[in-house]
Design goal:
Shape: elongated
Strand content: 15-25%
Oligomer: single chain
Radius of gyration: 17 Å
Number of strands: 4
Largest sheet: 4 strands, antiparallel
Number of helices: 2
Distance between the termini: 66 Å
């Protein structure tokens, strides 16, 4: 009987960031209203690029752009703020 050693799958870790109270308020409102935004690795590109997925009431949209470690959270917050301003009346 032969044993094969499985290769470890590549993993990626998001850069760390602290959140302000205003940002948490906006994110919380969006999540309560079924607007969710996620950051996921772009496995087709190098190890520092990320893509953003937007889930609105179960419909998933993927941002066609890819972002670096230092800009992904800025775009993430920009999307949350956009939907907060658009639907919070």
């Amino acid at each position: 009987m032969a044993f094969f050693k499985w290769q470890k799958a590549p993993s990626r870790k998001l850069p760390q960031r602290s959140w302000s109270n205003d940002e948490m308020k906006i994110v919380g409102w969006c999540m309560r209203n079924n607007i969710k935004i996620a950051i996921s690795p772009d496995w087709k590109d190098d190890l520092t690029r990320w893509q953003i997925e937007i889930n609105i009431n179960g419909k998933i949209h993927i941002d066609p752009n890819r972002y670096e470690d230092n800009t992904v959270y800025d775009k993430f917050n920009e999307y949350y703020k956009y939907y907060y301003d658009k639907y919070n009346k």
